[in-house]
Amino acid sequence: MPSDATLVFYLMGLAALMMASNRVRYDLIALFVLVTLALSGILSPAEAVAGFGATIIIMVAGLFVVGEMLERTGVARTVGDQILRYGRGREVRLMVPLCVGAAVLGSVMSSTAVVAIFIPIVLRIARDSGINAARLLLPMAFGALISGMLTLIGTPGNLAVSDALRDATGQPLGFFSFTIIGVTILVLTVLFFVFIGRHLLGPLTANGTGQPRRSDRSFADIFRIHGLDRAEVMRIEKSFAGSAARDLTAAAPRILSRWRRGPRGTPHVTLFSMGMDLRRDDLVVVTGSEADLSRFAQTPGVASAGSFYDDMNRWIDTLGIMEVMIHPEAGIRGSTLADLAFRENYGLEVLDILRDARPVSDIHTTPLRGSDRLLVAGPWSRLDGINAATRDFVILEEPAERARSVPNSSKLWIALIILFGMIAVSIGGLSITIVVILAAIAAVMSGTISTSQAYRSIRLDTLVLIAGMLPLSTALDKTGGADMIVTALLQMAGDDSPRAVMMALFFLTMSLSWILSNTATLVLVGPIAVSAALSMGVSPVPMAIAVLIAGSAGFASPVSSPVVTLVVSPGSYRFADFLKVGVPLTLGIATIALLIIPVVFPF
């Protein structure tokens, strides 16, 4: 055995052990692999760092930007809300559409892009439902990985196998030639996670209990602390302007915000002020006691439209609340809200003041003291900046629903146009890398995300992990290690039984896909599978299909594909998680595939 190949095998084993120990960061392990290959002379320095210039790196970076755009414009929340509505907070009903949806989308576009798009959606669903994100992310990623088994364009490696088959027989694979096998495997995977897999991925909720995690108090909790019993949405059924608007405002409980549909149908939400005009079909958020709200709902021209808490998504992006404390050494002590012109200077409305845990009777004319607790309402941007200019205020608490807000919801349709444009153009045949770069540029140029936000969204640890592991493929090929693995396994299988050879090729391809890229593995093994079948005098189609299916079955390794690697960090997965879930799933898929393939595609 050549010494260089031996060193590569030892290095692969050592990297696997380091990952399994869960004591060293995966990105540091990847850098260790890269440096060792360069210092040993197996690869030149340029070859060792070539992974950082690979197209997959720039594509993944661009996809992080696209994912951030989807989060900040509310696309992720909208999709997540639909899945949540269907799932009704039940883990299985949430997990299944995520897994199947990722598989279906990945079958017609980049599966890496699908995972990057789905990550913010899954994290939001996990946050809103209280379910541990680790129990949702991996099923979604595995579904995207299976997309390579559904269509010919599911992964670039499929085209390499089809080309090898065409060169040998003149008949390439069709677009849906093996879809029935992929669908069977997808169903098996879903059933595996429903009954077994999800229980191997940690507790149901992030805090290890059977109940959703609640780290903060809700809007309703904070309102009740300050004596605001209810928050209701009222619909205005006739116009109020001038003195009529002032009279209505004076007679109403506290009106916080007004929602109005603009001339182009775009909704506008503004903080309410005394005497603000109201038009027919405007909506307003009103807080107060049960009696006050009931009386206001009976006012002619006003009708109840339901609870504010049930209609939160309409308001949450622009209407927020915070509890702030007057700093004990604040310069505004002794001043009243009227003296400070609080509404005019801060753009916020003070709803209540607590002093020694008791409400202040007249909040506008009572001098402020240190440690007073103010409940303020207004746009999130104003709330976040309340203590930026001075040190007079200390932010104490914001509601848990803040996590559901998106800062750029008005540009949701722009984000959707960019997203579907990216999908359509990539299906049309343009390089997915170029398409993703264009989408990232469009996201910044359209204002859906700022340049600084785009750069902050890129997860460098994931990029380093992918780039650092890519040189292993080059090292195996350069030292002849890949050829040695192929030759040894085929010799072990012998050439008497086509099924035995097919099994050997399946496990060879699957094992190599844990180390090499999916495409590199199929480019290497595809022609070998076709040649082996022809030398035995049997049809090469089942051999080619087996190799193709195995190339997308890298479930037991966190670095088998960027599709899987992307979820390692947000899911806080360990190497052992992939072994616990991936090994039994892989064995089940291998068994089903090796039984079905010869039936659908006879030798």
UniProtKB/TrEMBL annotation:
This protein's GO CC annotations: plasma membrane
Pfam families, alphabetized: CitMHS, TrkA_C
Keyword vocabulary terms for this entry: Membrane, Repeat, Transmembrane, Transmembrane helix, Transport
GO biological process: potassium ion transport
Membrane topology summary: Multi-pass membrane protein
InterPro entries named among the record's database cross-references: Cit_transptr-like_dom, DASS-Related_Transporters, RCK_C, RCK_C_sf
Keyword Metal-binding listed: no
Signal peptide: none
Gene Ontology molecular-function annotations: monoatomic cation transmembrane transporter activity
PROSITE patterns membership: RCK_C
Protein name, per record: TrkA family protein
Record organism: Rhodovulum marinum
Lineage of the organism: Bacteria, Pseudomonadati, Pseudomonadota, Alphaproteobacteria, Rhodobacterales
